Amino acid sequence: MTIRIKSFNIDEEAEILKPILPVSSGNSDLSRPPADGADYLKRVRSEAEKYPKFVTADIELEDSLEDTEVDSFQLEDRFLPADRSTITSIEWRKCVINQFVKARKRVDLERCKGIIDEKLKSSLPKATNLHQWRKVIGSTHNPAMNTSGTREIYNRASESEDEDAGEEKTKPATQTQTHQELSPKLSVMLLLPQSLIVDILEGLIDWIREEGYSHRLGMWTYSLLACIEEPLQPDYFDILRRLSRTCSFIRSKHDLIQDKSLISSLNVIITLIGIYFNQKDLQDPTVLDEIE
């Protein structure tokens, strides 16, 4: 292995070591605490003069590289733009955004009314029980949930995973369901605290990868996005970005998707995250000429 290190000439070295703040010369009593900022900078300068301008370290590259583990960058971990068969028009995207804005305004209006269905609230799982919420949403290996081939997409992408873990994932749920599946109606969504909305959104990423994508999960995703309050916390953006990348990966395998209407549903989620939530690097091309 050859490592090339750029050499510096005298002028470049002088520029690098040029002081940013002017420090007046003069003696200072180092045994006493600094009297002001200028006195403190003198001590910093005095301490720096004790060390060489550049320091080096001998590194055993071959030995260090042998023990270095590098995680491979999986295809499903990055955003995959639409191709010619899945790209949407600008007019279509504008329509999606307009409808989404109207939905959010409706949510805000109902929140201001402060009307809560206490009976419905008491029937919902606890906010800390994501396992029960997964059942309520309908993502628990439900045979009736039509994933139309999307479940196999991630199964093929993770064939190298441990077989025992894979068998555990494909076992049907045998526990008795204590909560019926619910649709993401406004009356239900208004009862969810923001922390639970974010937790379910994050959980959906794993559930989609394990179960496949369905219109039911798409409806829940759309409703959760419509109910998340702005401005978003910084860590919420990471969840939205991972969700968009997951949807884009499934969409890229559109040849394996039996129900082609699921592609439109995936496009809606990707469009909302890319445009409404302003994740510009996760937006699809706007014209066909931009597609390779």
Q: Ends: how far apart?
A: 35 Å
Output the radius of gyration: 28 Å
* Sheet having the most strands: none
What percentage of residues falls in helices of 4 or more residues? 40-55%
Global mean pLDDT: 80
Oligomer: single chain
- Backbone structural class: mainly alpha
Taken as a percent bin, the fraction of beta residues is under 5%
The sequence of SSEs as H and E is HHHHHHHHHHHHH
- Tally of strands: 0
What does this entry look like structurally?
- With 292 residues, the chain is mainly alpha-helical.
- It has 13 helices and no strands.
- Helix 10 packs antiparallel against helix 11.
- It is elongated.
- It starts with 9 loop residues before the first helix and ends in a 16-residue tail after the last helix.
- The N terminus is likely disordered.
